Amino acid sequence: MSTQPTESTAPVQDPPVRNARAKLTEGEAYWRDLYDWLLEQGYRLRPRYHPDWEPSWEKDFRLIAGLTEDSETAPHPHLIDAIRVADDGYVVLKRVPQEAAPDELPILQYFSEEPQHSDPRNRCVDLLDVLKPTDDEGHTIVVMPVLRPFDSPEFDTVGEGLDFIRQMLQGLSFLHEHRVAHRDIRSENFLLDGSQMYSERYRAWRPNKKFDYSGPIKPSKARTSCWPEYHIIDFGFSKQYAPEEMPPSEPPKFASDRTIPEFKNRDARCNPFPVDVYTFGNLIRVNFIEGHPDIATQNGRKGFDFLLPLVDAMVQEKPEQRVTMAEALERFDDIVSGLSEWKLRSRPVRIPGDLVRRLNSFERASVTAAHWARKLKYVVKRVPPLPYNAGPPLKEAAEAELETVTNQPAGATEELNPPPPGTAEGDTEGPELDAIDATNEPPPITTADHTEGGELQAILSKPTDVADQPNPLPPTRWRVTQRMRQPRTNQRKLLVNLSSHLRERQRGIQRIRKWKQFQVNQRTPLMNATFRRLKKQ
């Protein structure tokens, strides 16, 4: 009796793939299906997401998967990089769920409108475009610029790290001022705009590689040379409250930081604004001071211990005892105003351990020498150790001082600039000039006009030594510029001595190399003669 073969009901499996990178993930398949539609909207995805894509390493066996541009996978299913066809700009597309994150798009649009967008305190990421797929009504695609991690490349000076902290304090304070709680503060949500630091385009997901995968990429400028901007991203957990809802009280929103005291009781309601203060204070402590015991790449940095009082005020156990974000910014400015230029230009060192490798003596010496060379260049060129709008508000202090002078009645300005003790009236030489040189203050103006308002005119007039320069500075900024840009005399002498020491050390190394080469040259003929004699024997 013959049996008829029955039809198999087993599912048909795909043929085995030689490399896992040759197959798109489920999240990548979503973007592949939108390739043509996005191209119509003016955005071109990478060749990997073309409907007819074939792996380059499958066609050319000389190529290796993982080292080609089309083998790079997207790290997140809701993010993809693209080229804007109109101007060849490099952008990032984000798929935003309207139901799970209903406030993300409205918040991005709110801070992209005027007058919020032009406010210098606004650190929200720019919203370049909004796309609405026809086949995906539950999601919206937002277009943003390509950014990189805030500590990539590493901070070269303490001032560069303080610039990042101040910009984020300023941005978070601006959010709270507009009744927006971020509720997901972590390192990954603070990014750097590296467009001024890098002359070449880098990969969005591999920021240390060139765009064409031809090799690694290094910055062409340091932060001190251009002072880049930092941005706040990821408003998926954020919420903007109405004025009548302040102060809010909501159930805890569990994100990345699980050490928040309010989250110990999952059923208790809390105010999200003090939670933001705690999480950012904890971020400063983990990334810049103490490190994190469970994260192998975060051991903290040496050189930021002076921020501990600020961190302690931000991470108080009780929310009502914590400072607000605006108060934290004021305390930060007070702390930074007491730092010397030497401290601001010092090099922060990551604490070694776990995945943070300890440098050997040669690497440490080369890195230190390169840092001192850059530091010497900045001092000679009078590049400030902090950007003009970071650190102590010297400009605001100078303007306030000028306003105080202008509001004084006639004849009262003499009290603001009293003559040095022991100086005779009308004497402009001797002890008075010595006192001026010692205090590094602008020289006093002598004028014959002592009528009503004449002394005020003398104070507001330009100093004689500054007026003779090709581009004299405005009188209101003279003292600010003196404090920010003129190094102290002892620091300048120390840097000059250090420069000469480095030159002497380099000359010593060259002499040692020449002596070793001389020994090799002398030893080679002797060894050849010895070998010939032994061969004859």
Automatic annotation (TrEMBL):
Residues 1-20, 400-450 are annotated as: Disordered. GO terms for molecular function: ATP binding; protein kinase activity. This is Protein kinase domain-containing protein. Residues 1-11 have a biased composition (Polar residues). Residues 1-336 form the Protein kinase domain. It comes from Coprinellus micaceus. Residues 426-435 have a biased composition (Acidic residues). It comes from the Eukaryota. PANTHER family: OVARIAN-SPECIFIC SERINE/THREONINE-PROTEIN KINASE LOK-RELATED, SERINE_THREONINE-PROTEIN KINASE CHK2. Pfam families: Pkinase. Signal peptide: none annotated. PROSITE patterns: PROTEIN_KINASE_DOM.
